[in-house]
Design a protein that fits this description.
Largest sheet: 5 strands, mixed
Strand order of the largest sheet: 2-1-5-3-4
Low-confidence stretches: 1-11
Distance between the termini: 72 Å
CATH class of the largest domain: Alpha Beta
Mean pLDDT: 91
Number of strands: 5
Structural class: alpha+beta
Order of helices and strands: EEHEEEHHHH
Shape: elongated
Number of domains: 2
CATH architecture of the largest domain: Roll
Helix content: 25-40%
Length: 178
Amino acid sequence: MTDQRASVPVTESAAVQTRGPHSVPVELSVNGTEYVVDLEPRVSLLDVLRERLELTGTKKGCDQGTCGACTVWVEGRRVLSCLTLAIACEGLQTATVEGLADGAELHPMQRAFLEQDAFQCGYCTPGQLMSAIALLEEGHAGSDEEIAEWMSGNLCRCAAYPHIRSAIRTVRDQRTGD
């Protein structure tokens, strides 16, 4: 029996660049800072952020993509960093909770979380903040039901949901009042 794949010529356009399985340099842009990190291609963005770049605001909750504690933005879109390969973010802009504040000036959502007591233990707060800001940008904060639906990927074991929704409404209303 012959391998039929071997008889098919590989054109230059069909060639695929292979990297790994050994460590390779990966260029990442996180919170406006450029990094070059040597890592195996199978390493998650979450592990690179926490263990290699020491940006520990993003939390490892379930490590299965169900709790949302690891939510960050890649190119302005919410992603679960525990399920995202770091190498897939090469050349893209990544933002974490550490990038929200402007020096000592907190992001309006961070201030609203403080004012509305939208956290208890605080473990889920970074992911909640990243999702809350994104849902406003996406236009999904029309009602409490809509907010709850679009925040449903971010779990809070302390059940601070009413306060989280209140913080989101506060920022939403400040934006529409301007």
